[in-house]
UniProtKB/TrEMBL annotation:
Residues 7-188 form the UmuC domain. Mg(2+) binds at residues 11, 106. Belongs to the DNA polymerase type-Y family. The record marks 16 as: Substrate discrimination. The gene is dinB. It comes from Stenomitos frigidus AS-A4. Poorly processive, error-prone DNA polymerase involved in untargeted mutagenesis. Copies undamaged DNA at stalled replication forks, which arise in vivo from mismatched or misaligned primer ends. These misaligned primers can be extended by PolIV. Exhibits no 3'-5' exonuclease (proofreading) activity. May be involved in translesional synthesis, in conjunction with the beta clamp from PolIII. Monomer. Its main location: cytoplasm. The keyword DNA damage applies. The lineage of its organism: Bacteria, Bacillati, Cyanobacteriota, Cyanophyceae, Leptolyngbyales. This is DNA polymerase IV. Its cofactor is Mg(2+). It is found in: Cytoplasm. The active site is at 107. Keywords: Cytoplasm, DNA damage, DNA repair, DNA replication, DNA-binding, DNA-directed DNA polymerase, Magnesium, Metal-binding, Mutator protein, Nucleotidyltransferase, Transferase.
Amino acid sequence: MAVPRKIIHIDMDAFFASVEQRDHPQYRGKPIVVGGRPDQRGVVAAASYEARLYGIHSALPSWIAQQRCAHLIFVKPRFEVYRAVSQQIRDIFDRYTDLVEPLSLDEAYLDVTQNKPGLASTMAIARAIKQAIRAETQLTASAGVSYNKFLAKLASGLDKPDGLYLIAPEQGQAVVEALPITKFYGVGAATAQKMQALGIHTGLDLKQWSEADLRQHFGKTGGYYYRVARTEDERPVNPHRVRKSIGAEQSFADDLEGLEAMEAALATLAEEVATRLDKQQRYGHTLTLKVKYADYQQMTRAQTVTGLLRDAATLHSLAKDLLRSHLDPNRKVRLLGLTVSNLGEPTALPRLHPIEFALAAVLSLAHRDKPTSTFLEVCPLRPT
């Protein structure tokens, strides 16, 4: 019988907001949110625990957050600080294991089955990590300990903030069976509503369904639901997790009206995405346009090409095509976004000379429907 893995999921408590309260004593004990102000059409990026008592959470429009708490404090994000603190925390993880899979700036999986200090107790490791984070950053983290990633992430949310929770192998099935379907990682609001309409309200209800039936209703994700209902999750902790998309989006203080204004905004986004692609030495083949109308209704449209999506001119041209084909011209727009996916491997391409960017853009459009090899022949890429 295989020896159970020892997995820890670390989740920082209200990370962005906690950093601001740490650095600004006047914010401590008060409801604060990190994000754009209501008069800037902002969205909550993070809410302190004091703000959460008012029903305020991330992704909530700032004007709604202010309605729920009149004395709410809005704080401008300082992402360079959050990244620096996140690196401090990552350095602590690295003292215990090389198998660290960051999910974002404020959470990560660790596989400590074989760990650097040689400790047998996973709980002792998790406790030591939490203590080091508090001592070195003055912040608190919650830790979930279990034998797979699904259960470890579930455990980290069961005793927040500053929690430490263990789901042992003999407890896993009972915990999952009693779990409301809305608490399953990977089940969003829309999926939960669909499941409830089918009579699936708990993990036990989910377990009664066959994999074939779940796949019929939920596609390939149905296989994942089938397995986790039985506490099966063989996904390894992957320290070399490669991102699957690169994008950018922008909310506008005043709703955009008319194609000209929207295409100008897309040009700025295309430049930003191209810069990020170049910095990471990536390229892609699929461009997705995101449009959020003034009434918050959202539309996404995508196009896949055989040529390389890498430079701003090509991205802007394809984005305009998608916008003109699918936009409702009678509605105003509050947000636009562009995302490149179907990415090529890192460092697969050398950097282009600035003059070659223009040539690449023209040739990429001209050969949009030809195999990539043809594009590379007509536009050879050389290092500078």
